[in-house]
């Protein structure tokens, strides 16, 4: 008789009420997979969109097949370990590197897993972590540093994307000015943290006064509202120069983001939560030597880098709130309220 477990199952399109806690079969690890006892899983915008549909088409969005279990930001303990995985033992604490790739193409061999033509995401394109157990490719596991608890480990999963935005694509240098939009989201909060760590001066934009206040409390020099024109505000803050980097996950804000850049500034894009077809004057781009760079997620080395810095106390993930699995509907309501600052985490 197959064993069963509790899982948060999304039954179809609708509000949080379409999620139910059900008994479902435990996953059976295949060759090369480890069975992980989930202890915490972070909620992402894609988890909400899995039941509501995205606000606009997302590349390469596919209609989900219901019922489904979502959850990408997974931290837990190893239950079983595949043969030949000598560096892990049952009971070890692990966090999941969610990008899945072929491991053979030119991009994977360069260490750029998210450039792989077969790239997909564990917990978004597979059954995910809002369950008691998951079967995960052993190659996608990283040890959780001793100083980091499960909730914080789950919250770190926004950090590789933010690192990619600020450091790899943004090429931040000490003394740079960085503008972070959607500053209350998981990637936004992580981008503020990383930019400050790099020695930059940070400006933040967020949709509520509370989020703007909290961004300044983190160390941002000033904060404004991204739902209103903000390029004039940025030029005032920087004495007419503009910022070196804008981290933009919204899309609709591109015209204002480009106008906020200094000459040779970089607009780094990691999302399109408000619009995926912004309209802007390309002369504002090339006449001032500005560039636009994409950063969907970080690679494995960036993931390891941020885990190390978090363990050393040099980066500080923000956990907005923690809900038990049987209150996952409340976690979704918290996410949809837009009141959260940092990561919402569900414990299992």
- What's the total count of β strands? 17
CATH class of the largest domain: Alpha Beta
**Helical content class:** 25-40%
Please state the second-level CATH architecture of the largest domain: Alpha-Beta Complex
Structural class: alpha/beta
Counting copies of identical and different chains, the oligomeric state is single chain
Coarse morphology: globular
- How many individual helices? 11
The CA-CA distance between the termini, in Å, is 24 Å
The residue-averaged pLDDT reads 94
SSE string: EEEHEEEHEEEHHEHEHEHEHEHEHEHE
Global Rg? 20 Å
Q: What's the structural domain tally?
A: 2
Describe this structure in words.
The protein is built from 11 helices and 17 strands. Helix 4 packs across helix 10. The chain is globular, with a radius of gyration of 20 Å. The protein folds into 2 domains: 4-144 and 318-347, Quinone Oxidoreductase, Chain A, domain 1; 160-294, Alpha-Beta Complex (Quinone Oxidoreductase, Chain A, domain 1). With 348 residues, the protein is an alpha/beta fold. The mean pLDDT is 94. The strands form 4 sheets. Strands 3, 4, 5, 8, 9, 16 and 17 form a 7-stranded mixed sheet that branches. A 6-stranded parallel sheet has the order 12-11-10-13-14-15, with helices on both faces.
């Amino acid at each position: 008789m197959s064993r069963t477990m509790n899982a948060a199952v999304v039954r179809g399109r609708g509000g949080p009420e379409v999620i139910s806690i059900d008994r479902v079969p435990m996953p059976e690890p295949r060759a090369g997979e480890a069975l992980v006892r989930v202890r915490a899983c972070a909620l992402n915008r894609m988890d909400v969109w899995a039941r509501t549909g995205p606000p606009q088409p997302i590349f390469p969005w596919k209609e989900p097949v219901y019922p489904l279990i979502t959850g990408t930001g997974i931290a837990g303990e190893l239950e079983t370990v595949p043969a030949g995985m000598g560096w892990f033992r049952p009971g070890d604490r692990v966090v999941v590197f969610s990008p899945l790739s072929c491991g053979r193409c030119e991009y994977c061999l360069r260490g750029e897993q998210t450039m792989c033509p077969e790239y997909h995401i564990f917990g978004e394109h597979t059954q995910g972590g809002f369950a008691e157990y998951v079967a995960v490719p052993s190659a996608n596991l990283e040890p959780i540093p001793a100083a980091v608890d499960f909730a914080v480990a789950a919250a770190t999963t926004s950090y590789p994307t933010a690192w990619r935005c600020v450091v790899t694509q943004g090429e931040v240098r000490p003394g740079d000015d960085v503008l972070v939009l959607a500053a209350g989201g998981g990637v936004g909060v992580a981008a503020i943290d990383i930019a400050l760590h790099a020695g930059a001066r940070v400006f933040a934009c967020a949709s509520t006064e509370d989020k703007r206040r909290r961004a300044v409390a983190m160390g941002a020099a000033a904060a404004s509202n991204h739902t209103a024109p903000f390029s004039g505000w940025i030029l005032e803050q920087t004495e007419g120069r503009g910022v070196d980097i804008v981290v933009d996950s919204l899309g609709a804000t591109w015209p204002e983001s480009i106008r906020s850049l200094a000459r040779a500034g970089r607009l780094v894009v990691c999302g399109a939560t408000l619009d995926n077809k912004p309209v802007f004057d390309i002369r504002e781009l090339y006449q001032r030597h500005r560039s636009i760079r994409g950063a969907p997620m970080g690679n494995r080395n960036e993931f390891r880098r941020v885990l190390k810095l978090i363990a050393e106390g040099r980066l500080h993930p923000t956990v907005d709130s923690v809900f038990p699995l049987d209150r996952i509907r409340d976690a979704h309501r918290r996410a949809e309220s837009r009141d959260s600052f940092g990561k919402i985490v569900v414990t299992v």
